[in-house]
Amino acid sequence: MTEIEIPDPTSPESAEDAPAQKISPYRSLFVPLVVVPAMIVMVLVLVYALFGALAGSEDTPSQNLDRLLNGGFNERQQAAFNLVRQVLEERRADGQGRESDWDIDASFLPKLRSARAALGELEEPSDVPIPLVLSSLLAQLGDSEGVGQLCALTALSEKLDPQGQYRVYAAWTLGAIGKELSGPDRDRAGETLIALFDHPDPALVLVATAGLQNLPSEEATAALTGMLGSRSLEQRGTAALSLASLGDPAGQGVLTELLALESYAGEREGAPLKWPPKQVSESRSKALEALRRLDLAPDRVVLEGWAEDDPDPNIRAAARKLLSEI
Q1: DSSP 8-state class, residue 37
Q2: Which side of the chain, N or C, has fewer Cβ within a 10 Å radius?
Q3: First-to-last CA distance in the chain?
């Protein structure tokens, strides 16, 4: 079983301490009840996973872009890390109304677009990471070509993505930036994730299911409602959480199922390593919070029982908090 551990984006230094091997989704990826990270988190995770983080001096964004395309292996690693950090710092500073250390103006987007186009056709797996990072940056800078490229990357062939990791990252990024998309880009991203519901890779299905919480539409709601009938607890649970985040109570029954410890015990019968205690606690806590947001929390008698006797201290604390609000 492999988990994705997401570093804190508010602490840039944390990236330099995060071992890259902890952020590597494989075909057997098991991410129960995914909550799509913010856009900034997603792109940082993407770079750490594909390139790692190296210490060193920073050049300008344009210089880093050139090194990413033309440098040696270590130079490309350093340039990818620095370039993404610079773009994200610029966006964060702009959102906070302050000056950034990096002057990334409108002239940088055409450079980024040209750099992505210059990479040409993908021929083997090692060709994928740099285009994936550049497409992610383009998409979050509001470029429609970048969104389209990410959509295409979710359909990479087995030859180019034998482990399925690049498809997962492309889909995850589409979900992460979903709230910032509009018009045709939003529609295209939503349609792409919905199409992945039939993919044979359960990790990709799970990430697509989570991503739709940021791409609301009638089609997304219908797809998520259909996923409530999945035989996979994590898939139907993620669908219920996504629906709840959209204010739709259709997944109430599945959210209630997630609160029951018996649900996880049954899952472990066929896969003993599935649902370790930490993930059970997180999933139950998310389900209870989702029911609270929907104003469908369990009644007082049930909450009092959990507050006193539930074996999970997180659930006991959450139940007490809910009781204090009644």
Answers
A1: P
A2: C
A3: 39
- Find tokens 């990818």 and name the residue: 80
Q: Are 68 and 58 in contact (CB under 8 A)?
A: no
Burial of 153 (0-12, 13-18, 19+ CB in 10 A): buried
d(CA 155, CA 128) in angstroms, rounded, equals 12
Cβ partners under 8 Å of residue 52, min gap 6: 20, 77, 81
Tokens 């389209």 belong to residue = 148
Per the CB < 8 A criterion, the answer to whether 7 and 43 are in contact is no
Q: Which two tokens stand for residue 88?
A: 């994200």
Cβ atoms of 133 and 46 closer than 8 Å: yes
How many residues appear in the chain? 326
Condensed to tens digits (0 to 9), the pLDDT of residues 240-268 reads 999 999 999 999 999 999 999 999 988 88
164-173 as b/e: b if 16+ CB within 10 A: bbbbbbbbbb
DSSP character at residue 167: H
Residues 177-214 as b/e (b if ≥16 CB within 10 A, e otherwise) read: bbeebeeebbebbbebbbebbebebbbbbbbbbbbbbb
Rg (CA), the chain: 21
- Give the DSSP per-residue string, 62-115: HHHHHHHHHS-HHHHHHHHHHHHHHHHHHHHHHHTT---SS---TTHHHHHHHH
Instruction: Give me the residue label for tokens 């509009």.
Output: 182
Output the CA torsion sign for 45, 97, 142, 122: negative
- Tens digit of pLDDT for each residue in 12-53? 343 333 333 333 332 333 344 445 545 555 555 566 666 555
- Collapse the DSSP code of 247 into the 3-class scheme (helix H, G, I; strand E, B; otherwise coil) and give the result: coil
